[in-house]
Amino acid sequence: MTPHAPGLPARVEDPPAAPRIAMLGGTFDPVHLGHLRSAVELREALALDRVHMIPASVPPLRGEPRVSPETRLTLLRLGIGDTPGLVADPRELHREGPSWSADTLASLREEFGAEARLVMALGHDAFLRLAEWRDPERLFALAHLVVVDRPDFEAPLPAELDALIAGREVGDADTLMASPAGGLLRLSLPSRMAISATEVRRRLAEGRSVRYLLPEAVERHLLDHGLYRD
Ligand code: ATP
């Protein structure tokens, strides 16, 4: 350590900034540009180090995905390519049983520490069902929630959800990121895209084009392997 001059106060080093990490969970059946563009814009809006895109092995609140978790992960990796700050994170594929988001957040919290700014990002359609999730209060103990607008899903909030989020909403990213967890922010991202995996699957089943709805590497892989063809 360098000694400081007598009479001058010791130089106080800035503490290292807490990591800023988001989880964007989903079925990704398959990943499309709505997911990827939202992840990039979310990273910019919150100055995040990384957005972990985490495919659910067994999504709790919906029917069985059309293709295996491993294939959805492969498509996600192809979709992300070398995009800075986006990560295809396989951690839910290594767990047995339903993919509870609170367990995933707990494992991120353990990895990145108590001071990390941890965000669970989700689209408005997924947010509308939040009160039905397992142990939703625990989600707020572990992370902030950031709700991303989707142009094709704009319904008002059910009463139980209103009660769950009471007192948590903040108005901007700086306020949210001043603490490690517990807040709620709604974001309207610049390139809101009305793309859904449902529509992508429907088009593929009908042999119609999906060009420009998903990255070309994803399109090529699923056409080459005849995925979602019925
Ligand atoms: P499906 O049509 O099969 O229900 P999806 O397109 O909604 O699928 P998911 O994998 O269920 O995709 O979504 C993962 C997360 O990404 C969810 O939080 C969802 O709200 C969000 N999301 C999906 N599509 C978009 C989009 N176009 N814009 C913003 N967020 C999106």
Characterize the biggest β-sheet. Answer: 6 strands, parallel
Order of helices and strands: EHEHEHEHHEHHEHH
Q: Give the neighbour order of strands across the main sheet.
A: 3-2-1-4-5-6
Average pLDDT confidence is: 91
Question: Which band does the percent of strand residues land in?
Answer: 5-15%
Radius of gyration from the alpha-carbon trace, in angstroms: 20 Å
Identify low-pLDDT runs: none
Helix content class: 25-40%
Bound ligands, named by name, code or SMILES: adenosine-5'-triphosphate
CATH superfamily: HUPs
CATH topology (level 3) name: Rossmann fold
Count of helical stretches: 9
Instruction: Tell me the span between the first and last alpha carbons.
Output: 67 Å
What characteristic shape results from the CA principal axes?
Answer: globular
Query: Structural class, please?
Result: alpha/beta
Q: Can you give a write-up of this model?
A:
- With 230 residues, the chain is of the alpha/beta class.
- It has a single domain (20-151, 158-225), classed as Rossmann fold (3-Layer(aba) Sandwich), CATH 3.40.50.620.
- It is 34% helix and 14% strand.
- It is built from 9 helices and 6 strands.
- It has a 6-stranded parallel β-sheet with strand order 3-2-1-4-5-6, sandwiched between helices.
- The N and C termini lie far apart (67 Å).
- Adenosine-5'-triphosphate is lined by residues 26-29, 34-35, 38, 122-123, 125-126, 148, 150, 193, 195-198.
